Amino acid sequence: MSVIQPSHSVTEHRLALTVTRQLIVRTKLIACCVTFIAILLTGIVSKGAIFFMISSMSNEWTQPSSGERVQDPDPYKHVVRFACWMWSLFFSFAVPELFGFLQSLHICVSRRGCWTRPRFVDFTIVFLFETAQAIGMALLLGSVFTGLSVLHGILITNCLYLVPALFNFLSRKPDEPKRAAKMATDAFAFFAQLSGCLHWTFIRDTTALLSNSYDFSFIQRQRMLDWTLPVSLILISIGWWENHVDKGAPVGFIKFLGRIKENMKETRPFTQIFVSLWKLLVFVGTMLILADVVFMTQEEHAFGATSDLFLLAIKNGFIQFGNSLTSVDWTSPFYVFIIQSTASFFFYCFGTFACKIGVQRSCFALPVVLITPSFICMWAVTQFDLLNLCHDCLSTDAQYFTNENYQRTVILLCLAFVWFLSQIWITLHIWKPAEISEQSETTDTKWYNSFVIDQSMSLSPHCHPSTAIDETGSAAKTVFAVVTMWHESTEEIHNILKSIFRMDKDQCKRRVASDYDQVIDPHLYRYETHIFYDDAFEWDSRDGVHSSRVVNHFVNDFIAMLHSMNCTSLDPPTISPTPYGGCITWILPGKTKMAVHLKDKTKIRTKKRWSQLMYIEYLIRHEMANCIDLSNVFLLSLDGDMDFRAKSVHILVDLMNAQRDVVIACNRSHPTGSAGAIVWYQMFEYAIGFWLLKPSEDLLGSILCAPGCFSLIRANVLLDEEIMTKFNALSEKAHHMIQRDQGEDRWLCTLLIKRGYRLAYSASSYAYTHCPETFEEFYNQRRRWVLSIMANTIDVFLNCRQIVKMNPNISWLYIVFQAVLLTLGLLCPGSIFLSLVNISAITFLLNPWISLASHSVLILIFIVTCFLAPTRVQLMVAKCLSALYGLILGIVGINSAVSISGYASVESYWSIHNVFFLSLVCCIFLMACLHLNEIHCLLAGPIYMLLTPSMSMLLFFYAIINMNVVSWGTRDSNSTERATPPTTETLKKDIENYSNIGNNYNETADGADTVPQISNENGQTFNTTHELSIDTTSYQSWEMEQDAEDSAVPSSSIPADQNPYKTRDSLNWNLKTEVELSKQLSNVKCLSDEDNSYWNNLIAQKLFPVVDSNKEHKVFKLSYNPMHYAQARFCYSIQERISIDLIRLRNLSFTLFISINSLFVALLFGMQVNSDISILQGLNNTNSSSYNDTLEFTKFNDDWVSQTNPMHIVLVVLAGLMIAIQFVALLISRTKNLIRLLSSVELKFFRKNLASADGANGLRLSNKVVLIRFNSAANRNEKNSASNHQTDLGQISTISQL
């Protein structure tokens, strides 16, 4: 028996996983301790604040009628104080109900697929149950608790489960294990709760004798307790029916309620909108009626009050409650309300957090059960006078704890112990693990009850264990990495190859662990890489006639880099000439396939959108045509410069498995490049965008764009014919050219959103992309991005009704959010221009009109340059203006620093602009603190600020004025081929010779002995005669006019033997003259007949090449008729029409853009001028000195800018609101990420041998990061298995340094 030891790389990997897991476990342990303490303390504080309010209200209640207070000159003030404390109780009750109302309203408005309208019967029953609970709460607080001591009141809170105990007894199924014992315990719990409702009748007489018999108000309250105590407890318990009914119960009524409970999962948001507001009205109405009855009875004995006087006292009590905000006493009603509401809210948050991270028993159920005993201990402490403060707050009757009352107290404590045991049994479900999914969290809008926070959370649907098991996440997954490349540099090629090898290594390790070590890995997947090289061929100048093609030097650089990356075990590639150009296939060391598809633009359509169509059609509709479930097949869309790790892919896969409605998920992209101002600017820009915009869009509904540089796409969504038909369509209008061809990734996302799909973002996954390093390349890239963003966003607005109707994740609130963002973006150039005018006037002591004229001249010069000058000159002028504006901002920054040092007035510090800027800086700093691994991006903040005028103002003008330029912009300098292409005369000559190619082809086939041949996989032979090719080097992809007869012929109707592309393979690929592939001629294989026919049909229907000349746009397409195989058909181009339409669209867009910003600037500047005139008149009236004095001029300019007008306030408030919304979304997003991370591990304190446990068993399948163990393959029975295992591990070690 041979023992196979894991390789060194596997050992290091296992050690790294162990260290990571230990760090997560320690973090979770700290989180558990904090959560336990927080839940216990917040529960005690919440309950203590409630009883403090009740005690204070009870004291004010008894003051007017007490014997010592009859001589009080103003007994009415006690009624006002009572009303003040009553309002504090009402607002404490209202806070969670308003939260539930707002959440339900948001769901009903924004998430249409998460709710439905309930049946009338269901709504009526739920409405009655909630109304009963609200009345019971008002009776309990307004009558019961005010007539009892604090200790008695705390013990009574264990008797709120009468109806749940009865429902538990009636819900037991006949086949349930240990049914008799459980029903007996249910019966005991029911009678224990019933004793709590009726116990007052047995101890009331003793209490009355021990109390002041002459206190009429006390006697009245004792009589009211006879019916208010049992009624209130029963009514409250009715509201907690939901967790104790089952649709499979043997009793018909319980079964009926169980069906209503199931329906409530979808109907609760709609119901809660009405129930929440109704409960507030019922609660305050019941409290007022109850107080009015009691006061009208007892106040007649005090000072003869009337109903009008009582209503006036209620009004004055509300005013006094508001005035208590200014009090410095923390025991004032307002501050007690704030303390109670905050404690209850944090109790709810920490309780939900404990359930989500999987520590419900130790960190939620245990502290909830300990809250009541903790209060009893506090009562004991006050009895021995150890804490006078607690004694003052918790004791309402100093004579209550006397020796005569000792016996009744002991009896009450014994009863309370029985109530406590029954409560534990009834709420036993909180000790079972509960998994709160995002869907249940979204639709369950019933929050908590502030008065009995521990009981309400124990009976909340949030904490009820879920029995549903999601099996979809464990299905086998397939990931196709699709990379679109063009003219990448060697550094970028190195980055993408490193990432591919990392994926290959990860897949191999997981496969080895699953096949040989029997490790159950939920992240086991099948992986392939497909690289699509655009414009990969050039004319071979060495044959002298330009009749053959060879790969360009970018492909040769890729091949050379691949073989230089220490891959000694890399097998020779398989080379296949294809109808679209060629394909080179490698089998990587980890046994994964990497196919490089080389596109020849004379054979197939180029550019990224058509590469996307190419891999969608080939991988999804051809390769996976027989796959039954495409929901677990994913396309990993990548750019050719990406640097990422396998963990980032697993995170996105987990996200899409957990949220099945997500069809595309993207991650956090980090820009990289050589150190420079442009790269630093992009570092800060990317950070702000991914910190604010992406989380807010994801939280509000769906992100609008998943960047194509790194996104995971669910394959089944690409089978939607309506989406693919529009995505595949050629651009027929000017705005199509901008929307579709300038931003193909965003165009696909727009189509998905319009069809009702959701796009998600995960900040836990990250990747690195190479960003533009020069000013020119950056401007050209953003020219495309700006226009594409605006075009697609406007398209969303134009179809907003359809989107809101079709997409359950998009609401009108989301549309308004995006509309405000777009409006602020369009007004951003005008805002920056006006800011430059203002700061220049202040800093350089200029007249505002002179400053306005100076900056207007600069902008006008740039606009004229963009209209008349070539691109090179435009970028040169933009660069000079950027430097000038950066210099101005630098001087302004120095001047502001000097002003802050003490040379400016205090009023200027707190102007609306300064406050907004300081708030924005603080917000950005807090965001960086939430991303500690990205906090270095703050260092690029000053560069971002200096370049803001250039990137947020000049860039807009450059992009809009150059709207008619549709070139890609980036890497264009490398786009020329090294070989000289044929001339137009050669092209015409080639076309004329096509009429005889058919006959020549037949003759060549007959004389096969003189023609080289290549064999395919089936042993069939094919001719390798070089075909005559059409030059498209100087052409760009534009539009096409298709004849109706051509468009009417589907691809399926073209026989394989009659398809013209069948005989038009890329066999003119001259492999003998290749630089890197000339030694691999022995590995040349042709495609199979099936693949060859597939590509021919696909090209003929959707991907045929489109070419154009300088003045006339022509489309070459071969005839379907085999008799006209070599004839080329031309149709006149619409290039001139599209060019004219683009110019018209450019002029219209620029006119609207400049008009809107000019009006905006004129409006704000006009308001400032009016403020200028008023200030100038004030100075002339108060000071006779000349206005030209420098000091006064500086003072005037400071005042001129510090003046605020309504437009300023609206814009600042609107921008601040948008930032606040995005910041809150970021906090929620980071909290969710923390929950997912902590839920990925399980704390096992009582396991004897933790190391021997299977690592996969210690992790949840729904986690974000799965850590798997790799055991040694010991005791192998078969030598072949051991040999294969060792071979795989050896192949892994060859790329362990990547």
UniProtKB/TrEMBL annotation:
E.C. code: 2.4.1.16
Membrane topology: Multi-pass membrane protein
Main location: membrane
Coiled coil residues, start to end: none
Pfam families per UniProt: Chitin_synth_2, ChitinSynthase_IV_N
InterPro entries assigned to the protein according to its UniProt record, in alphabetical order: Chitin_synth (IPR004835), Chs-1/2_IV_N (IPR055120), Nucleotide-diphossugar_trans (IPR029044)
Keywords of the record: Glycosyltransferase, Membrane, Transferase, Transmembrane, Transmembrane helix
Location(s), subcellular: Membrane
Domain Chitin synthase chs-1/2 N-terminal putative transporter: 26-291
Membrane-spanning parts: 29-54, 85-108, 120-144, 150-170, 273-295, 334-355, 362-381, 410-431, 785-804, 810-837, 849-870, 882-903, 915-933, 939-961, 1147-1167, 1207-1228
Top-rank EC class of the record's enzyme: transferase
SUPFAM superfamilies: Nucleotide-diphospho-sugar transferases
Sequence segments annotated as region (Disordered): 1040-1060
Protein name: chitin synthase
Protein species of origin: Daphnia magna
Lineage per the UniProt record: Eukaryota, Metazoa, Ecdysozoa, Arthropoda, Crustacea
